[in-house]
Specification:
The chain is an alpha/beta fold. Helix content is about 30%, strand content about 20%. The protein has a single domain, classed as Rhodanese-like domain (Oxidized Rhodanese, domain 1). The strands form four sheets. The protein has a five-stranded parallel sheet with strand order 1-8-7-2-4. Strands 3-11 form a two-stranded antiparallel ribbon.
């Protein structure tokens, strides 16, 4: 039961995330986001996956790590980053253009909504995420940044890595 409780909490949060205001956050494909960033270097790519995902699975070369969740090794589940908005505000000004990304587009949509509610008006979401959707075999080979052949790395640059409080 101890393991089920955190899992149920995360599931309830995830299930409550279907955006009531999804239309307020523009969705972009990985390629559209990449082209937008290449066209305007002032556009910021915000990777909201856990630090573990950012480091071990890879991340776009220009993406900053601002996790909306952390991986809890003991509970074997994701736990919310209660400092998410504080972390975002420490790195970005409300007038900046932010493009949010996660594994498959769900957490990043929630992050973009939270940012919008906190006063960031130029936000968008990469709907297919870094890894994309699962195929018939259960592997993430359908769309996504990585599968589109867009530039990514495992190297964590100091200026883009998560800034621990």
């Amino acid at each position: 039961m101890m393991i089920l409780k955190p899992l149920l909490i995360v599931l309830s949060v995830c299930l409550s995330w279907p955006p009531s205001s999804a239309q307020d956050v523009p969705g972009l494909s990985s390629r559209e986001a990449y082209e937008m960033i290449m066209k305007d270097p002032a556009v910021r790519l915000v990777d909201v996956r856990s630090v573990a995902e950012y480091c071990l699975i890879g991340h776009p070369e220009m993406a900053a790590s601002v996790p909306i969740t952390f991986w809890d090794e003991k509970a074997q589940t994701f736990v919310p980053n209660d400092r998410f908005l504080d972390d975002l505000k420490a790195r970005y000004k409300p007038e900046e253009t932010l493009v949010f990304m996660c594994r498959s587009g769900n957490r990043s949509l929630r992050a973009a909504q939270m940012a919008r509610e906190a006063g960031y008006v130029k936000v968008s979401n990469i709907t297919e995420g870094f890894e994309g959707e699962v195929d018939a075999r259960g592997y993430r080979t359908v769309n996504g940044w990585k599968n589109a052949g867009l530039p990514y790395t495992y190297q964590v640059k100091k200026e883009l890595g998560y800034r621990w409080p």
